[in-house]
Design brief:
By secondary structure, the protein is mainly alpha-helical. The protein contains 16 helices and two strands. 35% of the residues are buried.
Length: 354
């Protein structure tokens, strides 16, 4: 290699190392959680399309469908989600898988079976499964009357010295006061109100993760001045007794579930809710459902929660710049090392045999 090109490579190496140092300094100023940032709405849809084009193969979807079919009781929200995903991706499933699906569907969706399950689920949400009758329980338990009854019931428990259901009370408070609460905590009253009703269903069905329960318990303890609640005369005035910072995570979580419900329906949103552990999980799942639409449940089933949520993130610009700078420095260094090796080999070849 001529001296000129060695000089160019040396200059590139120095410039790349300086660039790497600058990028590393910039990155060190960011919290670790900021090293990955959420994709824009346009990027998000394209990213999921790329991943599903690669992962949603007939074999992968068929294997997941067959795993769900052997469960008892069967989770028809998950099964229908996988079926919808296969159709949306134009995936032709094996005939054996199709036959097994149709046979199981006929067995679980007979008129008598659905009527029995509907009555049982509407009467007691704890007996509900993720089957066709789930809608019966949701409809009965997602009304404003249900919120008032919950507060009245828990008030009676408290007067008698019993243990109050903190989650149910907090969700009823959020549901009744949604319009006023979104002013001080952010969000949209409609999705918060519908999300509160659906979250109560999730609570009674046992589909809340420990992380979600902790958020609502904190909202109960720190988010509301309960001593002032009896003096409130209108639902919109409930915001006056709320502590915005303490209650905001619970309201945001509730709103994310409401947004998922608006796109997937109650059954689909409940299924997604069963995989949420944090407010960030809920927000990212809600964004994913906006990009994926009806494919959301099937994509979550196929990819798993970790990969499903990772698709929505990309490396922060500072981290990408540092990686690019390090690769440039490595390339320049390898070029110089290769040049040195070639010069050494040439000298060895020219040495006369002694």
């Amino acid at each position: 290699m001529r001296p000129f090109w060695r000089l160019v490579l040396g200059g590139l190496l120095v410039a790349s190392l300086l660039w790497s140092g600058w990028s590393l300094w910039q990155l060190s100023r960011l919290p670790v959680r900021s090293w990955a940032v959420e994709r824009s709405a346009e990027e998000l849809g394209a990213a999921y399309d790329r991943v599903l084009a690669r992962r949603a193969t007939p074999e992968a979807i068929a294997a997941r469908v067959e795993e769900r079919l052997v469960e008892s009781p069967r989770n028809w929200v998950a099964l229908e989600g996988l079926w919808t995903l296969a159709e949306a991706q134009a995936v032709d499933l094996p005939e054996a898988t199709r036959a097994a699906y149709q046979q199981a569907h006929a067995a679980d969706h007979s008129t008598l079976r659905r009527a029995q399950d509907c009555i049982t689920c509407a009467y007691d949400l704890r007996s509900c499964t993720m089957g066709a009758a789930l809608g019966c329980g949701v409809v009965v338990n997602m009304t404003a009357l249900g919120d008032l009854l919950s507060l009245g019931r828990e008030a009676g428990v408290w007067v008698q010295g019993g243990e109050v259901d903190q989650l149910d009370v907090t969700l009823s408070f959020i549901g009744i006061g949604a319009t006023g609460l979104v002013v001080v905590t952010g969000g949209t009253s409609y999705v918060v109100k519908s999300g509160a009703g659906l979250m109560k269903v999730a609570h009674r069905m046992g589909r809340m993760t420990p992380g979600v329960r902790a958020i609502y318990r904190r909202g109960f303890r720190e988010g509301v001045d309960w001593a002032r609640v009896p003096a409130i005369r209108r639902a919109d005035d409930l915001a006056q007794v709320a502590q915005p910072e303490a209650l905001r995570p619970a309201v945001e979580l509730t709103g994310s579930l409401g947004a998922m419900q608006a796109r997937l329906g109650s059954r689909g949103a409940l299924h997604m809710m069963g995989r949420v552990d944090t407010v960030a999980d809920a927000r990212r799942m809600a964004r994913a459902t906006e990009a994926l639409g009806p494919r959301s449940v099937g994509a979550l089933e196929l990819l798993g929660k970790s990969r499903f949520l990772r698709v929505g993130l990309r490396l922060a610009d500072a981290l990408r710049e540092m990686i690019a700078a390090l690769l440039a420095a490595l390339s320049a260094a390898l070029g110089l090392i290769w040049s040195r090796l070639l010069r050494t080999l040439r000298r060895l070849v020219r040495v006369p045999n002694g």
